[in-house]
């Protein structure tokens, strides 16, 4: 009896090993590079997939040439205490600048020279999310007190958007800095003019808005909430293009990227999942799971950023500290 049970157990273990060891090749990364020794706290990948900036406790902010997997710069923004970690990173659409922020301050960095172009502290509340325009000309700061601050660097002009009534969770901005989007705990995402502060569109959700994004070419806006609604909007008309279709009770997004041709959407999640979507249908085309952090239990990873590398590949940065190159379905 015991021998039969042992034999059955051995067969089960062999079967599990065969199943886990024979995953389809296109669901595994082509290459993997370690960018943070003990995990990352924030990361962003440039829109063209050639540069990334990663925040970690041991390395400060590291900037990587993803084409060569070469470290370009290591920066420090008061990363000497657990209360002062850089928790938000944004790379300008033209790769000229990187904006970084912890809860109480933010810095602008020049990617061409590697030098800091400024360090500022916020006076009220704390920072929740950030965005920068091309050339670092305009900065966007979303705060816990419900305000979003737009700063024009050349003139020092500071505009506060006061449309939200609750905490800001997420912000984004077009490359020219003229249009912003913000989402908060008030169940609303606003698209607004950064020169006048006037609302252009208001997108209502049934729960707190956790992720917003703008297509750099000005075609689409993306808004998603903490429960089940994720929408793609026509940025020129404000009309709904599609809603993402999935069967899960809940799907939260940590990163969003539009494809250059405007036909697909790449999303990352706090559950290691990266998904490719068809914008025209709202259907998920394929999903992958990034390498988890093995030093935490249960093993997991947040996908901080995902970007199209070319027509055949995309690249991810996650809290596991790994950058990973993946094949796109052909």
Automatic annotation (TrEMBL):
The stretch of residues making up the signal peptide is 1-25
InterPro entries, per the entry: Quinoprotein_ADH-like_sf, WD40/YVTN_repeat-like_dom_sf, WD40_repeat_CS, WD40_rpt
Keywords carried by this UniProt record:
Repeat, Signal, WD repeat
What are the ranges of the WD repeats?
161-202, 202-243, 246-287
Question: Keyword Signal on this protein?
Answer: yes
Domain of life (superkingdom): Bacteria
Protein name in UniProt:
Translation initiation factor beta propellor-like domain-containing protein
Q: Which organism's genome codes for this protein? A: Thalassotalea algicola
